[in-house]
Amino acid sequence: MKHKILAGFLTLSAIAAAPAALAQTTLAQTTLAQTAPGSAAPGYAAPDYAAIVAAPDRSEADRKLDTNRAPAQWLAFIGASPA
User: pTM for the complete prediction?
Assistant: First the structure.
């Protein structure tokens, strides 16, 4: 039983550490990954995630949370698109 509890805590700590690891990813690394051959359909340009995150219509509360959430990197990672 102790092993299952420990395994659960280790899993939760790995999940909690994921946003911090993503925050360390630079925008250049994210852009490089997006422009790698075969990363997107021909003729498709990935949205400017940094510009989306910097949009003036986002609340100040969201902007404060951005340092921990790394929203531009998450959007790039999941391949979010307007369509």
Answer: 0.45
